[in-house]
TrEMBL record:
Domain NAD(P)-binding positions: 7-191
A Pfam family recorded for this sequence: NAD_binding_10
Tree of life domain: Bacteria
Organism: Prochlorococcus marinus (strain MIT 9515)
Name by which UniProt lists this protein: Putative NADH-flavin reductase
Stored CDD domains: SDR_a5
Length: 219
């Protein structure tokens, strides 16, 4: 499988790249001109351009089987970030997918998208803009999957972390290591039952262990 990953320089993005490599996928990492990309190993290529550059984006997305969107506004005093990145940036990526006929898209979003009264919205109404980004993807043209994680953790200690997979608007708190979110993104590409689903994920040692495949049969 050939996939493109935007936001591949991010803390979730680079882990998605690694999980894709483990599966033997060919990966196009799409990043900004000055993005710091951690690893440049086998089966990956790094493409540097702005997501506003339609031609470069179209060219990058031609002949790939799936796009994973792991872009997200970085915390900043610029409160327009969420609108620019989480809504408009997603829209631009999806328009490009339509132009080149790429249907399979996985979007890393967030728990609580669409909620107005939430402390995270102090950063440029991020949960509102993320919901708008999600809605652009929920379109019959696409075979879409939206992964909505709880608070993201850097921990790589995941052996005792079991994922609670639920559908839309059922979890409102909790956290999950970025590594597990990355695995969910890659698992969804190999599982047709994840198509046209919003999958909310948090993790804890208290959850019962369940495979992604089994979870997709129940949500
Ligand atoms: N933090 C949390 O607890 C949390 C919880 C739930 C969901 N999420 C969401 O999960 C996703 C991944 O989060 P993360 O913390 O792993 O991400 P992150 O490390 O902040 O990385 C964000 C990525 O987006 C890229 N990006 C930002 N602005 C961009 C722009 N204008 N054009 C192109 N690329 C741009 C960054 O590129 P550069 O490297 O060039 O900056 C980077 O690759 C995000 O959508 C985030 O909102 C986060």
């Amino acid at each position: 499988m050939r996939i493109a990953i935007t936001g591949a320089s991010g803390k979730t993005g680079y882990r998605i790249v690694e999980e894709a490599q483990k599966k033997g996928f060919k990966v196009k990492k799409i990043v900004r001109k000055n993005s710091k990309v951690i690893d440049d190993s086998k089966n990956t290529e790094t493409l540097r351009f702005s997501l506003n550059n339609k031609d470069a984006l179209d060219k990058a997305l031609e002949n790939v089987d799936a796009l994973i969107i792991a872009t997200g506004a970085r915390a900043s005093v610029d409160l327009t970030g969420p609108a620019r990145v989480d809504a408009l940036g997603v829209y631009r990526q999806l328009q490009s997918c339509k132009r080149v006929g790429l249907k399979r898209v996985v979007l890393v979003s967030s728990l609580c998208t669409g909620k107005l009264f939430h402390p995270l919205n102090l950063f440029g109404l991020i949960l509102i803009w993320k919901k708008i980004g999600e809605n652009f993807l929920r379109n019959p043209f696409f075979e879409w999957t939206i992964i909505r994680p709880g608070g993201l953790k850097e921990s790589e200690i995941i052996d005792l972390e079991n994922i609670d997979y639920t559908n839309e608007d059922t979890q409102f708190k909790g956290s999950i290591p970025r590594r597990l979110v990355a695995k969910c993104c890659i698992d969804s590409l190999s599982n047709k039952q994840s198509i046209n689903k919003i999958i909310e994920v948090t993790s804890s040692s208290k959850n019962k262990k369940i495979s992604f495949k089994k979870a997709m049969q129940t949500i």
